[in-house]
Amino acid sequence: MAVFPTGDEARAAGRDDTAGGRGAGGGGRGMPRVHTRRQWGAKPPRHRARVLDRAPDHIVVHHTATTNTKDYSKAQAYRLSRIVQRFHMRQLGWDDIGEQLTISRGGYVMEGRNRSLAAIRNGRHVVGAQTLGYNDSTIGIENEGNYSNAPVPVQLWASLVDTCVWLCYAYDLDPFQAIVGHRDFGSTECPGDVLYQRLPELRWVVARRLGVQGERVATPGHGDLHVPNQDSASRTVLRGVPDPPAQPDGMA
Ligand SMILES: [Zn+2]
């Protein structure tokens, strides 16, 4: 479910098997609240993004390597997206912001490259600029902050889990195979040692969320998860009735 929980709620969710609390029919696997380009004030892209008529095969977790701000507000989240877009377009000369999705330290999820939300809803892939050599087949999530040493804020973590559940469900991806760090695809420290070392946990939590409807999740590893994503009825429910947006204003 789309939540921007308090710290305690997020910690509880992180260790709780959510299957019991979420009904069948896509509950818990839907789209989290994603703030649109219009909301954060995106500049128009130089060119419309290219959309491929297929799903990506990996979800690449990044960190922005920017300051670990204590400003968890929506204003900071929107500012972050504008800063990243400006940097990618002006300094790097790209057509638009590189990543498809951005998550702030306060847990706000934002659309990145133009056409990304529509593409995800339709099971298609927007070609971004986030993982050199793999942009035709990977979708990237930029997480605000530098996680070489610092812990991941609980709000960011909760939204990263929600986002990965949503993407795995929308694209029929096995989280154990699909969720990777940027360094798995290139010579980079990204997403920092701390966040990278939490990727196994991320895969597990996402798998458990996807495992509602009584599907078995056995031991960690490839091939153990049966992702029940072939049910067209629940996919219709997923797309037709997204989780209600939560107002994050009460967040710490
Ligand atoms: Zn990266």
UniProtKB/TrEMBL annotation:
Residues 20-30 have a biased composition (Gly residues). One of its GO terms (molecular function) is zinc ion binding. It holds the Pfam family Amidase_2. Residues 1-46, 217-252 are annotated as: Disordered. InterPro entries: Amidase/PGRP_sf, Amidase_domain, PGRP, PGRP_domain_met/bac. One of its GO terms (biological process) is peptidoglycan catabolic process. Residues 32-46 have a biased composition (Basic residues). Residues 44-192 form the N-acetylmuramoyl-L-alanine amidase domain. Residues 32-186 form the Peptidoglycan recognition protein family domain. Belongs to the N-acetylmuramoyl-L-alanine amidase 2 family. SMART domains: Ami_2 (SM00644), PGRP (SM00701). Residues 8-19 have a biased composition (Basic and acidic residues). Transmembrane segments: none annotated. This is N-acetylmuramoyl-L-alanine amidase. Residues 242-252 have a biased composition (Pro residues). It comes from the Bacteria.
